[in-house]
Structure formats: C-alpha cells, structure tokens
Amino acid sequence: MLLVGAILLVIIGVIHSYLGEKYILIRLFKRDNLPKLLGGDWFTKRVLRFAWHITTLAWWGFAAILYVLSVPSVDVQAEILYIIAGVFALSGTVSLLFSRGKHLSWLCFFTIAVISYYVALSR
Fold first, then answer.
1. Is residue 64 within 8 Å of 83, Cβ to Cβ?
2. DSSP state of 101
3. Which of 67, 58, 66 shows the shortest CA–CA distance to 90?
4. What sections of the protein cross the membrane (predicted)?
5. E strand segments, 13-92
6. Spatial distance between the Cα atoms of 113 and 81, rounded to a whole number of angstroms
7. Distance between CA atoms of 95 and 103, rounded to whole angstroms?
8. For residue range 19-67, what is the model confidence (pLDDT) as tens digits?
C-alpha cells in the first residue's frame, strides 16, 4: 500500500509542476500588476516559480520516505534522514539559484540538510 502512495506522489509531482507551469505560472507572469519586490517583478516571478516547484520536490521526498518505510532496512531512521537531507539540499539549491541568493530560505534549507545528514552519519 505504501508503494501505491509513493507512486501517486511521484505522478502528482510531475503533473503539478508541468500543469502549474503551463496553465498557472506562465499566465500569471503575463500580468502587469504583480508586486514589485526589490525594484521590479523579476524577484516576485522567481520566488513564485521556485516555491511552486519546491512543493514537487517535497512530495517526491515523501514518496521516497514511503518507499523506505515499505521495504524497511536495518536503519530506517538514517535512511529517512538522508532523504530529508537530500530534499532540503535540493530545495536550498533551487532557492539559491532561482533567486540568485536574494531569497534567504536557502540558508535554512542548507542548515536543515546539514543537520539531517550529520545526525544520520553519527548514528
């Protein structure tokens, strides 16, 4: 049953990112009344885009956790911590690159990734 949930999360993530980009974000970005942050709407558009796609990354992380729980190994906790570290490292990278470092969420994401990885290693 958990594998079904994991597969559904992967599928919904793909659909969410693809359809959201095609039918919501692109249309939204054509508007001329978006909030102008840091002098223009560039930052607003970038933050909306990376926030939208980070949701998909989070769902894929949950899919990986469901998979690990469906076929547990000796150290499930460490495996889940590695997944969390990976998801937050990717989220930090997306945030850093999309906002060119101006959206400071990348600091928190990388910190969470490092803490999770460290705890997994030290078990």
1. yes
2. T
3. 58
4. 50-68, 80-98, 104-121
5. none
6. 9
7. 7
8. 999 999 999 999 988 888 888 888 899 999 999 999 999 999 999 999 9
Q: Give me the number of domains the chain comprises.
A: 1
Tokens of 84: 């969390």
* Token representation of residue 52: 């939208």
Tokens of 57: 């990354």
Letter for the amino acid at 96? L
Rounded to the nearest 5 degrees, what angle is found at the Cα of 50, between the Cα atoms of 3 and 25?
A: 95
Q: Which among 44, 5, 6, 2 has a CA at the least distance from the CA of 25? A: 44
Q: Which two tokens stand for residue 10?
A: 């992967």
Residues shown for the chain: 123
d(CA 101, CA 36): 17
Q: Which amino acid is at 3?
A: L
